[in-house]
Specification:
alpha/beta; 2 domains; 15 helices
């Protein structure tokens, strides 16, 4: 799911997302959109879909992670999180009820329950208290949505528990008891080693229903995505495709390449020979893309963003096809072997 934090996937138009990339779902950010442009503006347009001119599904996060990562000062209580926002330092409160109300106003198709994202490293005592809060907040989110019944909106809970297997299990079971539309594994990619990230998923996945979607939040690199699919995860979001593009890095089956490097100055080949991404299909050379980057031309960032998003979305499609044909293990082994052979990023 491409990330559209501020109501836009950076450097890419809604038409390109739909017609060129066939993105089925994109993300909006509760915290950021609440701050700017604000709910009064969104309400004037009847919701985020109309405001950003996107008629396919939108998933909005709860704002919990942004409070964890961006708020200048914050105080966590049973009521919610009081904090100073990162734009102007104004005091704000985000609670389970407020988070769900914001997401209802945004009119997203999938809304995430409000949670507390523990840091890494995190001692067990903090993790237990944090999980208890997240579990109680999940019940309050459910109570609010049942009372207000946002039209056509699905709701996902977020499994927490830091690095502790029994806490992950307890969190998953508590959320399943609420009978939600889907379940996410949160509190990953917060600075922990990759093996701990995988372990967090492995400790939660067996306790989540097989007939409802599982979502790994904020992940990850292409190899991580493939590994998570192998562990039973269905949905992903990640800022890497467009973030890497803004730094001149393009993704290929053999790994990332930094198109700012001097060795591409006269390279007539496309980013990737057998790619069907827009810049590859149209024959834009690595040399031309390097020139655009060096000249700070916006087109360079746009073209590489389109390529990287295509890479991620086509990787997910290939994984689905491999699962459908019962050859995912072979697909995973071949992809990982080829991708990790690359030294092109240096």
């Amino acid at each position: 799911m491409p990330v559209g934090t501020q109501g836009t996937v950076k450097a890419v138009s809604p038409e390109e997302l739909e017609d060129e990339l066939d993105a089925e779902v994109i993300l909006g950010n509760t915290y950021h959109l609440h701050l700017r442009p604000g709910l009064e503006v969104i309400r004037e347009f009847g919701g985020l879909h109309e405001f950003m001119r996107w008629d396919r599904p939108i998933l909005t996060d709860s704002g919990g992670y942004q409070v964890f990562s961006l708020a200048k000062l914050r105080k966590i209580t049973e009521e919610g999180v009081a904090f100073q926002n990162h734009l102007n330092g104004a005091r704000m409160l985000l609670s389970p009820e407020i988070s769900m109300e914001i997401q209802a106003t945004l009119g997203s198709d999938i809304a995430m329950y409000f949670d507390e994202c523990p840091p890494y490293p995190c001692d067990r005592d903090y993790a237990e208290k944090s999980l208890g809060l997240t579990t109680r907040w999940a019940q309050r989110c459910k109570d609010w949505t049942e009372a207000h019944a946002p039209e056509r909106q699905l709701h996902f809970g977020i499994v927490q528990g830091s690095i502790y297997a029994d806490l992950r299990e307890a969190s998953a079971k508590a959320l399943v008891d609420l009978d939600l539309d889907g379940y996410a594994v949160g509190g990953v990619s917060v600075g922990e080693p990759e093996e701990e990230m995988f372990r967090a998923v492995e400790n939660a996945e067996p306790f989540l229903p097989v007939d409802k979607p599982r979502y790994a939040m904020g992940l990850g690199t292409p190899p991580q995505l493939v590994e998570m699919i192998g562990r039973g995860i269905d949905l992903f979001d990640c800022v890497l495709p467009t973030r890497l593009a803004r730094h001149g890095t393009a993704l290929t089956a053999r790994g990332p390449i930094n198109l700012k490097n001097e060795r591409f100055a006269k390279d007539t080949s496309p980013i990737e020979e057998d790619s069907n991404s827009y810049p590859c299909r149209k024959g834009f050379s690595r040399a031309y893309l390097r020139h655009l980057l060096k000249a700070n031309e916006i087109l360079g960032l746009r073209l590489i963003s389109l390529h990287n998003l295509h890479f991620y979305l086509s990787l997910a499609r290939r994984a689905r096809e491999a699962l459908d044909s019962s050859c995912f293990t072979t697909f995973r082994e071949e992809f990982m072997t080829q991708y990790h052979q690359s030294d092109q990023a240096t």
